[in-house]
Amino acid sequence: MLLLIGLGIFAYLAVALAFFALSAMELAETARAAPGSLSLALVTAVFWPITLSVMSALVLVTKTRHS
Hints:
Elements: H1 2-29, H2 35-46, H3 48-66
Helix pairs in contact: 1-2
């Protein structure tokens, strides 16, 4: 049981790290890598399930609105 919990935590943190790395690279490429922007990217990376759900909903809403 502890192994499954450990694997779950590892997977969650791995996805959060990927979200943060991609966000930080995007900010660096667009020259907007201010400390505030990186802090916000870290917060959204930690709460990636919520971020993913909200952004998916926004995409669906804007697609149906423009169609």
